[in-house]
Amino acid sequence: MVEKIGFIGAGSMAEALITGILEAELFSADRVYISDINQERVESLHNKYQVQIANNNQELVKQVDYIVLAVKPRVVKKILGRVGQQIRPYQKLFSIAAGVTTKQLEKHLSTDVPVVRLMPNTPALIGSGATAYTLGQAATEDASRVVKEIFSSVGLIVEVKEDLMDAVTGLSGSGPAYIYMIVEALSDAGVNVGLPRKVASKLAIQTLLGAGEMVQELEKHPAQLKDLVTSPGGTTITGLKELEKTGLRSSLYQAVESATAKSKELRGE
Ligand SMILES: NC(=O)C1=CN([C@@H]2O[C@H](COP(=O)(O)OP(=O)(O)OC[C@H]3O[C@@H](n4cnc5c(N)ncnc54)[C@H](O)[C@@H]3O)[C@@H](O)[C@H]2O)C=CC1
Ligand SMILES: O=C(O)[C@@H]1CCC=N1
Question: What start and end residues bound the annotated signal peptide (predicted)?
Fold first, then answer.
């Protein structure tokens, strides 16, 4: 892209997105800007990716076309209180802060600044992210087009109504961590029944990848695929019975529900 993109907040998620968009060659490093109150962090990302350093958030806003707000939800108000009025209608503000609504963001901006609220996830780092977005009141098809172009370069992107953004945060925004825990637990479980750690981990990871790809590629209901693994009176049904007893399904329902509620809480209203 010939435009410039800048990240206010150069933490974990900004780094995942920067890596993804550079890998996808959507932006060259001389068109990617970062600003952060942590100077060590800024320098480390600059050395690693050759991205441009803005001295502060005000400077960053002056330099770029697309501003990605990638700070914790609790500092959004303070930052936009300082730079919000500087943002021009030809620019676009993309916020990835969990819970923070487009209305809350727009309060600090001129009425005609296009705002997009997004919820990406960390696999964007390797081009396998899942992002949902919703448009603010001044965001048009043009904003939608730009967001799709940028975020489809790092994975899947879908548009949802704003009242579903907290649910997205509870599912795909937070979800990678649930899956990492499952992989870790499966690997531990393999060690528990006698497998060497390296073998257990390799098998756990590949099982997860293979199963995920099967669901995606065959486009079958997961229950149908589960049936294919399950021989009558066999090992798999014995394992599944334990998962039902110990409540894997309800644990996941509960995790997504609580994370969704937390996303709402983070907007601080
Ligand atoms: N980590 C994840 O998987 C995801 C995070 N998010 C959202 O992304 C945002 C950032 O999350 P993380 O990257 O995990 O957090 P992080 O803590 O790694 O990064 C936040 C960065 O913001 C910087 N910062 C704080 N105050 C600042 C200021 N006044 N000006 C400039 N920079 C400032 C911090 O120094 C830090 O480097 C959050 O709002 C979170 O809800 C969204 C999707 C996924
Ligand atoms: O844990 C968090 O608050 C952020 C939002 C989604 C994923 N990580």
Answer: none
- Give the distance (Å) from ligand 1 centre to CA of residue 17: 12
Where are the chain's structural domains?
A: 5-160, 174-267
91 in Cβ contact with 67 (< 8 Å) = yes
* Residue labelled with tokens 């697309």: 66
From the number of C-beta atoms within 10 Å of its C-beta (0-12, 13-18, 19+), residue 47 rates as exposed
Mention every residue, 6+ apart, whose C-beta is less than 8 A from residue 28. Answer: 22
Please state the pTM of the whole predicted model: 0.96
Measure the CA angle with vertex 164, ends 246 and 89; round to 5°: 145
Contact between residue 92 and residue 146 where contact means Cβ atoms under 8 Å apart? yes
Q: Which of 33, 36, 71 to mutate to test the pocket of ligand 1 (most atoms within 8 A of CB)?
A: 71
CATH number of 174-267: 1.10.3730.10
Confidence check on the interface: ipTM exceeds 0.90, yes or no: yes
- pLDDT at residue 269 above 80? no
**Cα of 98 to ligand 2 centre, how many Å?**
6
**Please, are residues 71 and 100 in contact by the beta-carbon 8 Å criterion?**
no
Measure the CA–CA gap between 183 and 181, rounded to whole angstroms. Answer: 5
- Provide the mean pLDDT of the chain: 97
Instruction: Give the CATH number of domain 5-160.
Output: 3.40.50.720
Separation CA 264–CA 225 (nearest Å):
35
Check pocket membership of 119 for ligand 1, CB cut-off 6 A: yes
Question: Nearest Cα to 135, choosing from 107, 158, 109?
Answer: 158
